[in-house]
Amino acid sequence: MMPAARESLLDAAYTALARRPWSTVRMVDVAAAAGVSRQTLYNEFGSKEGLARALVRREADGYLAGVERALATHADARDRLTATAEWTVSMARENALVRAMLTGCWSERLPSPTLSAVPSSSAVPAQRRADGPLPSPGDFVAIVRDRAVVQLAVPGTPKSETADLTRSCELVTRLALSCVSAPPGEGGVADLIRTALSRQPA
Q: Which of 28, 42, 110, 193 is most exposed by smallest CB count within 10 Å?
């Protein structure tokens, strides 16, 4: 199956989830919305659980791709970290699956796949990856922190300074996640991050 067809099935599943609880989403409706047979859907994802895992994996990947873009957008390290925090909060506001992944709070409307890997007999590489471990909130903190450090660290920087940078990146990531759970007041995410970073080693 072409990757584009897999994407259209995931789009159909995401649209269905936006309209009604996952427990009432039917595989036959997802297939019909994507213009394929139900058998094609099962061949690609194996089961409704497999479809849920693939959807969660795709939304996680989309969020992390946005983190990479935010980190590459500005010249100044503080602006890059602020942009990353703002992306995190806006993505969680717009996307219920990303919000659930970042907070660990899965509402009854959403699928709630186990985060550990599940046995996979799929011949589809993308599905084998989706059947692997899914990131927990703690995993996201580590992934975003480490990607920020890679983007911001200057080659040849002493280890002590890299340790400071790592702490700053983790602080920003955790502050962003706290803003997802409890939205910040006036001044928003950017003010909060800039204030925190002004008290950190640059």
A: 28
